[in-house]
Write a structure and sequence with these properties.
InterPro entries: AB_hydrolase_fold, Epox_hydrolase-like, Epoxide_hydro_N, Epoxide_hydrolase. This protein is an alpha/beta fold. It contains 16 helices and nine strands. A nine-stranded mixed sheet has the order 1-2-3-5-4-6-7-8-9, with helices on both faces.
Amino acid sequence: MSRGYDVAPSSAIAKLEPFTLIVPDKDISEFQTLLQLSRLGPTTWEGKHEDRRFGITREWLADAKDYWLNKFDWRAHEKHINSFPNFKVAIEDDGEDFIIHFAALFSEKKDAIPVAFFHGWPGNFLEFLPMLSLLKQKYSPENLPYHIIVPSLPGYTLSSGPPLDRDFTTEDASRIMNKLMVALGFGSGYIAQGGDVGSFVARTLSREYSECKAVHLNMFSVLSPPEGVKLNEVELRGMERMQNFRNRGTAYAQEHGTRPSTIGHVLSSNPLALLAWIGEKFLEWTDEDPSLDTILESVSLYWFSSAFPRSIYPYRGLFGGARRPDTFLEKPLGFSYFPFEIVLGPKAWVESQGNLVWYRQHEKGGHFAAMERPGTLLKDVEDFIQHIWPVN
């Protein structure tokens, strides 16, 4: 008889607490009141451009507010989230307990390969739920070849926030993520996968921790690209898009990195403001607009969990100060190139920075690969694993 996807391996050394997400009624009522009273700004010339050259339109925000207030069903999304095994676990770090949330699909196979999937901003673990659904359709707990772990990074949604008495960086978050994987019984080895902030976490895990045996990424930031390399047509189009993002789309990141307290107070005081700030990213960083329900689900989770501004600490290292030099990744590296990614990883660039053993270029997909193209990303990760760590 199957034990189900929610039974951790016997090698786990931490006490896992099953978690069910239930936002209190009073919090939902307060949210609805705030949203109802949130005033839309006046119509402007900039706010009428449907090509969104100046950001979201007033019409989109007005329609989204109406839908969020009158048609969006948070409890239905909660039910879907809770249909997957969710847990919380205490991870001790620097004398402090961090309560880390993660969703998981545990396998009953003794030789199952542990794989951790790491999200970024303004994403969260919800991005990977479509992929978990595909895995549940494809495998049973008895024959699932992997242990799938999808953590909420520290400060994001359902995990503890950074400490209040000291600075906290992506390297700190990475250390806690490695401790999480060891606590779950995967100290003998695991694979890390990531995009956005998650790509920096995965690279740190590969560089600093022996337990991380390989990484697969769908974003690869290169501080000093190699000179004189020839890019193909897809990569050239992507470079044009990336340059446009750098010229016209990074103001939010400068604010996160240099004035996090100010923007944090602004956006944590009003749900409509938070929707405008985050909704723009879901619309602009994808090749096809996600459904409004998808956007509102993530923004709602950010709101109910007070994830903003707890989640923007990584930007200080990228935009608020000197970024550490790129370090060559010696361990096996796989990369999936999605053309609408905002930070491109041409093959020659990735090869210059890591032991690239697997690479695949796609014609569709953007920054939120797991959400946009879950089947594509899943196949890529499985093919990469099969390449470096064949499974039966």
